[in-house]
Amino acid sequence: MKLLNCVGLAAALVLAFCAPLRAAPTWTEGVNYFLIDPVRPASVPPGKVEVTEVFSYACPACNLFVPTMHKLKTNLPPNAVFNFLPASFNPSEDWPMFQLAYLTAQTLGVADQTHDAMFNAVWQSNELAVIDPATRGIKSRLPTIEDAAKFYQAKAGVPVEKFLAAAKSFTVDVKVRAAEDTIARYRVDRTPTIVVNGKYRLQTESAGGNDQLVELVKWLVAKESK
User: Are 57 and 98 in contact (CB under 8 A)?
Assistant: First the structure.
């Protein structure tokens, strides 16, 4: 019995050592990810690597991307800093309003805690929907910043008047202008787009899938960490 066990163990070890190793993915610049030229310096401390999702709450693909976004954040190394950059380039679907709402919430310190809830308000509860559930077309009345203010009061306890005052402030106006400038410099033309350290741009399609995107971002973070 002992002899048979030893023979079986030896065979298993031989198979383990002789089996071909799974090849690491090969990522190609210009195919799987794209160099941003000129590089825009990241707004993180030295030794950190910035990972940014360019998104909109009104973007259906961004809504579907939420589980992958959480997986990506969970799998990033400790030196990676994950943040969001709201886009406005689809005004017919209210993207400028959602950009303003996010940057106002960020200024007030409630953007992170309400991020998933805002997607739910747009795509599940229809509280802030831009698509009419009955016709599947764009609603004739799109959500306003006042509607968003009521959402943030309900979800984060920010008084409507305080939210609206912040939305009209110089601070938020500067943030909106900076977001527009950054997105243009990154040459982002779709959402969701991931930008690593202001240097590399990629999407789920270029990476080859959601799981591949997570692995590619980790690879680029490691590349930038050297």
Answer: yes
Query: pLDDT digit string (tens) for 19-30?
Result: 444 455 789 999
Q: Would you list the domain boundaries of the chain?
A: 50-220
Strands 34-35 and 200-202: antiparallel
How far apart CA 56 and CA 32 sit, in angstroms, is: 23
Closest CA to 129 of 94, 96, 164: 94
Q: Read off φ and ψ for residue 101, nearest 5 degrees.
A: -60, -45
Sheet of strand 200-202: strand arrangement: 34-35, 200-202, 193-196, 49-55, 80-86
What fold, for 50-220? Glutaredoxin (3.40.30)
Phi and psi torsions of 190, nearest 5°? -160, 160
Q: How far apart are the first and last CA of the chain?
A: 52
Token readout for 164 is 């609206």
Q: Which residue has the tokens 């886009």?
A: 87
Beta-strand relationship, 80-86 and 49-55? parallel
Neighbours of 204 (CB within 10 A): 20
Task: Label each residue of 1-38 as H, E or C.
Answer: CHHHHHHHHHHHHHHHHHCCCCCCCCCCECCCEEECCC
Global pTM exceeds 0.90: no
How do residues 84-141 score in pLDDT, each as one tens digit? 999 999 999 999 999 999 999 999 999 999 999 999 999 999 999 999 988 999 999 9
